[in-house]
């Protein structure tokens, strides 16, 4: 054992031994009402729906208040359409980008960062400019440093010490480093063969959809592709599997090779140790409450104008001769209400949309059959004081544990990392589990108590932080039964054929007086579909852009 290892371990043990008895630990679920969602499922299975007790009207109805639905509302508002209603199942909007608080400390309940968007996502860039996060200075775009992730950004607990970055480097052999370099070259070659973009539809051909090179990658798993390339190093494969679970909810044995390469090629590439990294490619926007900060900004004007209807389960969406009928259950009143409108934006997950849309179009029914979804568990742990730490790299925003003891464990982010106040104090650690590779994960989420998930998270953190139980006071768990679609082989090829054509009669789309690009949108005569599911994977850029596009269609 190295001296610094010994000293670090001894200090941690001493600190743990000198602590007073730990506070009483509380466990609870938060953020998502699983029972409400299941009640919707059960009600739909019972037969004819109850008759509506109230009829309401609007110009546009938005079904679903995740990122796509909120983006659609913004798009309508900017186009001058204000007579709309957004119907959301939960008591707060946000979808996978929700915010919460534990003992007064703000924290994410889901997605926790947004990479600085590239030029393929001008709609997201415009949003950030609108929110004051981005401005042009001396001819160049600059982002508000208060919202960029503070340094150090990430670290890895590997071989009983912390190292900078998430790629295992310290103590690995030359053979491992060589495979890192080979994978970097492979990512570069794939990028040159056909471009990867985010949002992904920016790379689609208007007539053929997915490029032939991407179709070939989409036809196999990422694991099979790595095997073809002779990339079998255990450290490299651990890292790539982690990346897939982080973005897609499942590992490299389930996601396509297209998805595995897209993770790197559409953003910042892959950099082997010693390779130069362009600083402007690595920027990440984050907040103590994660991407919940963004959805709070998007929902604020809707609340102010009375356009947001929360606690409302969409039961039925039907196209009629005169427009659209949307029947919804109001959980606050206990009544079924009918909304009538000329048009509707269906910003629901595909599997929900296929249940509630009457006579669903073929592309919706087929997508519901082919898509697969990953469950997630997000555990927020309130600490009354900073934790003891193992030797190595300093505490970071994103902290990952190599060989995490929990299935799908992805490590934790620290809600206090973005604080401008340097003084240590209480904080919340948000621990993530992507459960797409766990066969009975959905059943476990429905039946296991909050303490089960909380104890598992605490056990994982006890390795790098042996005193975690001494300082943990409250644990809140947010469960997502169908958190995100998994980009399994064949999905991109299938989805790329849906909604390729520009909206008929809307070749000159204007928004706030500015010409807008026509974006591919799955649609019928009166329904436009908007959700990250239509991109085959769940990230903010995809959901927001698809919602924006649907708003242009229906506005």
- Spatial order of the strands in the main sheet? 1-22-18-21-20-19-10-11
> What's the count of strands?
25
Number of helices: 17
- Any idea what the shape is? globular
- Mean of the pLDDT scores? 90
Remind me, CATH topology of the domain at 49-91 and 310-371 and 499-554? FAD/NAD(P)-binding domain
Write up what this structure looks like:
32% of the residues lie in helices and 23% in strands. The protein has 555 residues and is of the alpha/beta class. Among the domains are: 49-91 and 310-371 and 499-554, FAD/NAD(P)-binding domain (3-Layer(bba) Sandwich), CATH 3.50.50; 114-148, no CATH class; 174-272, Guanine Nucleotide Dissociation Inhibitor, domain 1. The strands form 7 sheets. The chain has an 8-stranded mixed sheet with strand order 1-22-18-21-20-19-10-11. A 5-stranded parallel sheet has the order 13-4-3-17-25. The longest helix has 20 residues, at 174-193. The protein starts with a helix and ends with a helix. Residues 1-16 have low confidence and may be disordered.
Essential attributes:
single chain; 555 residues; alpha/beta; FAD/NAD(P)-binding domain; Guanine Nucleotide Dissociation Inhibitor, domain 1; 17 helices; disordered N terminus
Give a summary of the structure in a few sentences.
The chain is of the alpha/beta class. A hairpin with a 2-residue loop joins strand 23 and strand 24.
């Amino acid at each position: 054992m190295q001296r610094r290892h010994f000293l670090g371990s001894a200090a941690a043990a001493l600190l743990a031994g000198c602590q007073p008895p730990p506070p009483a630990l509380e466990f609870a679920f938060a953020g998502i009402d699983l029972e409400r969602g299941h009640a919707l499922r059960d009600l739909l299975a019972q037969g004819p729906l109850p008759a509506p007790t109230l009829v309401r009207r609007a110009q546009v109805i938005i079904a679903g208040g995740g990122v796509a639905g909120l983006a659609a509302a913004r798009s309508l508002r900017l186009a001058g359409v204000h007579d709309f209603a957004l119907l959301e199942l939960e008591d707060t909007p946000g979808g996978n980008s929700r915010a919460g608080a534990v003992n007064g400390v703000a924290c994410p309940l889901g997605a926790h960062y947004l990479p600085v968007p590239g030029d393929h996502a001008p709609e997201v860039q415009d949003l950030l400019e609108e929110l004051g996060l981005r401005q042009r200075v001396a001819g160049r775009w600059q982002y508000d440093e208060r919202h960029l992730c503070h340094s150090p950004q990430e670290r890895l607990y590997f071989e009983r010490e912390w190292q900078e970055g998430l790629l295992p480097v310290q103590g690995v052999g030359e053979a491992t480093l060589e495979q890192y370099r080979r994978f970097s070259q492979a990512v570069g070659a794939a990028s040159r063969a056909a471009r990867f973009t985010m949002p992904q539809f920016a790379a689609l051909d208007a007539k053929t959809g997915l490029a032939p090179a991407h179709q070939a990658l989409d036809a196999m798993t990422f694991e099979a592709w790595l095997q073809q390339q002779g990339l079998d190093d255990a450290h490299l494969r651990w890292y790539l599997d982690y990346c897939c679970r982080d973005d897609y909810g499942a590992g490299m044995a389930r996601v396509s090779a297209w998805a595995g390469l897209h993770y790197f090629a559409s953003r910042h590439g892959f950099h082997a140790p010693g390779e130069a990294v362009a600083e402007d490619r690595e920027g990440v926007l984050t907040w103590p409450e994660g991407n919940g900060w963004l959805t709070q900004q998007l929902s604020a004007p809707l609340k102010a104008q009375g356009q947001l209807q929360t606690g409302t389960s969409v039961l039925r969406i039907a196209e009629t001769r005169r427009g659209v009928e949307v029947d919804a259950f109001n959980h606050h009143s206990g009544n079924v209400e009918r909304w009538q409108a000329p048009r509707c934006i269906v910003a629901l997950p595909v599997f929900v949309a296929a249940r509630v849309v009457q006579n669903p179009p073929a592309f919706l029914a087929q997508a519901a059959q082919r898509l697969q979804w990953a469950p997630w568990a997000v555990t927020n742990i309130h600490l009354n004081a900073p934790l003891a730490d193992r030797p190595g790299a300093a505490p970071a925003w994103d902290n990952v544990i190599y060989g995490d003891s929990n299935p799908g464990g992805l490590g934790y982010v620290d809600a206090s990392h973005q604080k401008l106040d340097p003084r240590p104090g209480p904080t919340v650690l948000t621990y993530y589990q992507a459960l797409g590779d766990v066969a009975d994960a959905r059943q476990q989420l429905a039946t296991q108590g909050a303490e089960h998930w909380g104890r598992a998270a605490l056990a994982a953190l006890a390795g790098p932080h042996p005193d975690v139980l001494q300082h943990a006071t409250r644990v809140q768990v947010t469960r997502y039964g169908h958190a995100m679609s998994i980009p399994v082989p064949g999905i991109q090829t299938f989805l790329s054929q849906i909604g390729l054509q520009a909206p008929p009669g809307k070749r000159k789309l204007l928004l706030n007086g500015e010409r807008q690009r026509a974006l591919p949108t799955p649609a019928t005569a009166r329904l436009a579909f908007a959700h990250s599911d239509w991109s085959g994977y769940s990230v903010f850029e995809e959901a927001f852009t698809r919602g924006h596009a649907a708003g242009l269609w229906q506005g």
